[in-house]
Amino acid sequence: MEIHVEAANADMLPKGCYVSVRVGDVLKQGRYEPQRAYNFPGIDRRRDVRIDVYQHVGTCLLAAEPDSSSVHDTFATSTHPDFPAMKFKVNVTTKTEEVQKSKTDRAAKMKGKAKDIDLSVSG
What we know:
Elements: E1 2-4, E2 18-23, E3 26-31, E4 37-39, E5 49-54, E6 58-59, E7 69-78, E8 86-93, H1 96-122
Region (Disordered): 97-123
């Protein structure tokens, strides 16, 4: 399924805004571009389509390490003249079992790819 979102009056949208389109449990989002197509898996029954419009007001960057916990005091640099820099306290916790599952899943995926390559080379 493909969805296009185009403002009837583009002058009414804030400059540089973002559009979020949700169909069921699937969410797609990006900077508003009237020509953009949002592609979703096919639907088997009637679904609601939710469209939200957001304005980016700030950003920050921090590191998350596997198998560790950390607390960060960070500032979000404002990208909007009406908002000052914003301070956040961010708690990052990675559970050991999540890290192990991620490593196991990644190893299995790589093993499957290697097997596919071996079959295509020898076949």
